[in-house]
């Protein structure tokens, strides 16, 4: 059976992807074949290996600015230190009614002072490299390059070409001073247009004229800010977290005022809303109430009834439990397992089957604090609808952090361990230089 902590993702729009050079990333713990990572920076294969092969989880991996150097540091660190001295140990299937084998998982917390230190160091090193690259692009003349939308060639600099596309074709990827790796970005956009893909929604069209008309009418003459594949080309994404939060989540700014701005913003909002996916099937709705009504009508499952009287975190457990059972093609009421999703849905549609009779002992387990799907926006909608957290919920009040020279937060240490581990600051410096 798959682990309850296995990283999964709900269906979403495809990210930009082109063939590009790759780099090898070795495992932190073993000498298996290195993992190949391309320019899109997708490390899911590495994280899955760490989880399945070593029961190892990295908290907030998305916040790591330079994963290869981060992995390199912890590889050397774990060669000289015991895993339990640094990581929090999580045991699964510890309830009286659990029939599955109990397993230990190791969580490398991003609240650990040593982890905070190495993240900051690799982020600073990465930012310095990005700024150096940006300065080189500003000073370096652009090799002869044709505009993406007309036959004009530009040989002056990259800013001239970007401004030409913004002012003459109303296509902007942002201010040139805010961009980096511009040649690579232009290569990606040119490749998409050659394959007749819309640069915003990435739909494919039969010919160039149809594509141009679509982008004009739909106000799609810009790239999708929700597509994380473009994040590496915006300097703001390499800055400190505080700077990113102040700058906001939309680094794409048009270079001139446009009457279409309000229309474009409405288009983005509509696209963002349809992300709440049914707990049982793949139906997507725009709000929590609509999803609940759909589950009542289509699956005879009353989410409001099942969660009545439950606190916020208990409802979180219910959602994660249901997601996991459906993913495993297992009935969340009786536990029966099936070969396919279709067989499960047929089982749940039986008139004799009460889909609302779920035993609390099945979902009320610590492992279901973890989201089954990393991008499950139903959890966010639940938070919006239930802002006041019930006093019956069990929640943790964070304590003050220990000074930075301590490695393990007191709250994350195994009670049986009495030794403290001293951070190897020289190792951090040597890795990031």
From TrEMBL:
Write out the entry's keywords from A to Z.
Metal-binding, Zinc, Zinc-finger
Superkingdom of the organism of origin: Eukaryota
A Gene Ontology MF term for this entry? zinc ion binding
Tell me where in this chain the C2H2-type domain is found. 196-225
In its keyword annotation, does this UniProt entry include Zinc-finger? Answer: yes
**SMART domains listed in its UniProt record:** ZnF_C2H2
Against InterPro entries, the record matches this protein to: ZN622/Rei1/Reh1_Znf-C2H2, ZNF277, Znf_C2H2_sf, Znf_C2H2_type
What family does the entry list?
Belongs to the ZNF277 family.
Q: What is this protein called?
A: Putative c2h2-type zn-finger protein
Q: Which organism is it from?
A: Ixodes ricinus
At the highest ranks, the source species' classification is: Eukaryota, Metazoa, Ecdysozoa, Arthropoda, Chelicerata
């Amino acid at each position: 059976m798959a682990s309850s902590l296995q990283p999964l993702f709900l269906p979403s729009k495809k990210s930009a992807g082109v063939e590009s050079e790759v780099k090898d990333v070795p495992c932190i713990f073993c000498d298996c074949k290195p993992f190949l990572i391309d320019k899109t920076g997708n490390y899911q294969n590495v994280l899955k290996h760490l989880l399945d092969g070593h029961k190892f989880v990295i908290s907030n991996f998305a916040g790591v600015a330079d994963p290869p150097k981060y992995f390199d540091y912890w590889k050397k660190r774990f060669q000289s230190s015991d895993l339990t001295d640094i990581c929090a140990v999580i045991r699964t299937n510890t309830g009286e009614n659990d029939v599955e084998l109990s397993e230990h998982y190791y969580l490398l917390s991003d609240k650990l002072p040593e982890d905070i230190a190495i993240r900051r160091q690799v982020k600073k090193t990465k930012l310095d490299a990005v700024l150096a690259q940006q300065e080189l692009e500003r000073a370096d003349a652009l090799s002869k390059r044709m505009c993406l939308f007309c036959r004009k060639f530009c040989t002056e600099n990259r800013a001239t070409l970007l401004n030409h596309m913004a002012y003459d074709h109303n296509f902007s990827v942002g201010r040139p001073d805010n961009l980096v790796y511009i040649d690579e970005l232009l290569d990606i956009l040119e490749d998409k247009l050659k394959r007749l893909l819309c640069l915003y929604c990435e739909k494919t069209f039969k010919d160039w004229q149809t594509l141009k008309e679509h982008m004009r009418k739909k106000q799609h003459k810009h790239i999708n800010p929700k597509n994380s594949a473009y994040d590496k080309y915006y300097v703001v994404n390499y800055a400190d977290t505080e700077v990113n939060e102040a700058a906001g989540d939309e680094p794409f700014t048009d270079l001139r005022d446009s009457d279409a701005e309000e229309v474009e913003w409405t288009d983005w909002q509509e696209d963002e809303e349809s992300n709440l996916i049914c707990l049982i099937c793949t139906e997507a709705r725009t709000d929590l109430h609509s999803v609940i009504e759909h589950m009542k009508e289509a699956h005879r499952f009353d989410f409001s009834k099942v969660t009545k009287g439950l606190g916020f975190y208990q409802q979180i457990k219910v959602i994660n439990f249901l997601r996991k059972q459906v993913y495993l093609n297992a009935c969340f009421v009786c536990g029966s397992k099936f070969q396919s999703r279709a067989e499960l849905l047929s089982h749940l549609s039986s008139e004799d089957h009460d889909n609302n009779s779920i035993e609390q002992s099945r979902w009320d387990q610590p492992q279901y604090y973890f989201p089954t799907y990393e991008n499950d926006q139903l959890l966010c909608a639940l938070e919006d609808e239930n802002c006041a957290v019930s006093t019956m919920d069990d929640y943790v009040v964070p304590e003050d952090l220990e000074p930075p020279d301590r490695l393990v937060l007191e709250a994350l240490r195994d009670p049986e361990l009495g030794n403290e581990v001293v951070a190897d600051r020289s190792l951090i410096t040597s890795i990031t230089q």
